[in-house]
Amino acid sequence: MRVQGEAVGRAFFAREIHEVARDLLGREVWVGARGARIVEVEVYEGANDAASHARSGVPTARTWPMFAEPGRVYVYRIYGMHRCLNLRAPSRVGPGAILVRAAEPLCGFESRVREKRRLSGPALLCKEMGIDERFSGAWVGQGIVVRKGAPVAEEEVGRRVRVGLNPERCGEAARWPWRYIVEGSPWLSRP
C-alpha cells in the first residue's frame, strides 16, 4: 500500500475555509486500502452562498455536518442516486464545507478506474471509493482519512468558477471562483 505521510488532524480543518481548500490539493484521501491524490475541490459557505446547503442558516437532519465542528465529513445524495464528499471547515460568514470534486488514483483501484478517469467527478469518486451516507457526520480519520501527501506549488494552483450551478437559482454565486484545481491535471472533472 502506498501511503505518503501521516494523517492530517482536526487542526488542519480548523482554519479559514479557502485556506483549507487550497491546502487540500495534493493531499491524499483514503478509504480502507483505496487512496487517491486530491486535484480539485470547491468551497460552499454561509447563508450568502445561494449554492450552499447551509444557505438557510438552519441545520437539518441531512446538513448538520456543515454546521458542526471543523473536520467533520458531510456526504449527501444528489439526483437521488449520486453521492458527494464534503469536508467541514470554518468560514467568516457562517457554516461551510469543501466538496472534493476529483482525485488521481494512487492505490487499491482496478485498472479501469485509471483508464476511464473514474475519479474525475464527485459522484464517480464516491462510487469508486465506496463513500456513502454512513460516513456523514463522522470525523475525518474515522473511515475517511486525509493524509499529508505531496504539497502543490503555488504556481500549480488554479482558481475557477464552481461547476454545474444554475445562474438563475444561484445568482452571482454561480460566478464565484471558488473551485481550486491542480493546473494541468488530467484528472480534473472540468478544465
TrEMBL record:
<keyword id="KW-0234">DNA repair</keyword>
<dbReference type="InterPro" id="IPR036995">
    <property type="entry name" value="MPG_sf"/>
</dbReference>
<dbReference type="GO" id="GO:0003905">
    <property type="term" value="F:alkylbase DNA N-glycosylase activity"/>
</dbReference>
<dbReference type="InterPro" id="IPR011034">
    <property type="entry name" value="Formyl_transferase-like_C_sf"/>
</dbReference>
<dbReference type="Pfam" id="PF02245">
    <property type="entry name" value="Pur_DNA_glyco"/>
</dbReference>
<protein>
    <recommendedName>
        <fullName>Putative 3-methyladenine DNA glycosylase</fullName>
        <ecNumber>3.2.2.-</ecNumber>
    </recommendedName>
</protein>
<dbReference type="GO" id="GO:0006284">
    <property type="term" value="P:base-excision repair"/>
</dbReference>
<keyword id="KW-0378">Hydrolase</keyword>
<comment type="similarity">
    <text>Belongs to the DNA glycosylase MPG family.</text>
</comment>
<dbReference type="InterPro" id="IPR003180">
    <property type="entry name" value="MPG"/>
</dbReference>
<dbReference type="GO" id="GO:0003677">
    <property type="term" value="F:DNA binding"/>
</dbReference>
<keyword id="KW-0227">DNA damage</keyword>
